[in-house]
Amino acid sequence: MASHFPDDFKCPISLDIMSDPVILSSGHTFDRPSIQQWLDAGHRTCPISKLPLSDPPSLIPNHALRSLISNYTLVSFPKPHHYPPNPQTLVHALLPPSSPLEEKLNSLDQLSRICKSDSAIRRRLAESGAVSAVLNCVDSSESGLQEKALHLLLILSLDDDSKVGLVVEGVVGKVVQALRCGLGDSRAVAATVLTSLAVLEVNKVTIGSYPDAIPGLVSLLQMGNSRERKEAATTLFTLCSFPDNRIRAIQNRVVPILIQNANSGLERAVEVLGLLAKCEFARDDMIQCSGFLDILIEVLKNGSSRGVQYALLTLSSLCSYSEKMLLEALREGLFEICAVLLEDDNEKVRRNAKTFIQVLQGKRKNV
Asked: Which long-range contacts (CB under 8 A, 24 or more apart) does 256-261 make?
């Protein structure tokens, strides 16, 4: 099964499809169990680059890649023909408006299957003008056709060399339109396509500058179903590593919507809040949201390691900024909670807990 997946989805150590991809400080991605076994054996160099690692080594979850792998497996395909179809023939079947719907659906299925297993064909299609034919299907009012076209765009976007070219071809505008007005599962897939494209820094700038992109994601985060809200939060997290996009998200009143989602158990919303807390305007919005501190405390007590990391990051930003928030945090026993987290197995949790305790101690000394 792994042979049908792009090589970038496979762990360089185990050669299996990654279930929990993490990034080393060297910039290379591995599956967490494999690299952890490498580190547990006493190695302190990157298995690929041989560069020395920090001690203790830092393993950063690669959420964008994990989301791509997850969404890559969602499409079901018909049984393959005995002879592989010609990709250009399949593309031509998408062009005439009068082509039967079933023929277009079948062509998109076969193109997706071919592109999944052959990176060379992916790149050739992305560079051959086929994208415009696929975008015509994204415009369709038929939900099945639109969704399959978006899945094909997602597959074409897997190669970094194709990501900029896809943006130049006008993919972002069509995908954002599907994000806002798509049918069926199209809105969730559209968000995932944006996440894939935004892996490149230059595309973060381009996507964020589209007038409807971030507003569309904020709307999906507010009104979407569970999968749509998770994908929207993932895309926002990827985009908001670029400072201007943080400002755009804040201007679209994303903070209270993120807090509402965090209160509903969507930890990815806490991660986005951790990024936005770097901005003064976002901190003001957070402080004004009643009950936000209780939500962060709940994450500290019962959340995943990543959720705890970003809850601590958010708390450090807020309590350094607002004395009122700092005093409330002390009253709620956050000093004692963080003291326990200093013994956590996760290095980033320990580090962020230490930073937050230093913020709290600065006030305790003055009280």
From this structure: 256/285, 256/289, 257/218, 257/221, 257/222, 258/221, 258/233, 259/286, 259/289, 259/292, 259/295, 260/222, 261/221, 261/229, 261/233
Residue type, 298: E
Q: Are 69 and 18 in contact (CB under 8 A)?
A: yes
* Structure token pair of residue 326: 């700092």
- Which pair of tokens denotes residue 297? 């405390």
Calpha distance 233→245 (Å, rounded): 13
Please give the structure tokens belonging to residue 344.
Answer: 């956590």
Q: Which residues of the chain have pLDDT under 50?
A: 1-2, 76-82, 365-367
**Amino acid at the residue 18:** M
Q: Between the CA of residue 130 and those of 123, 154, 161, 345, what are the distances in Å?
A: 11, 14, 16, 49
Cis upstream peptide for 56 (omega within 30°): yes
Distances (CA, A) of 215 to 189, 251, 338: 17, 9, 36
Verdict on whether the full-model pTM lies above 0.85: no
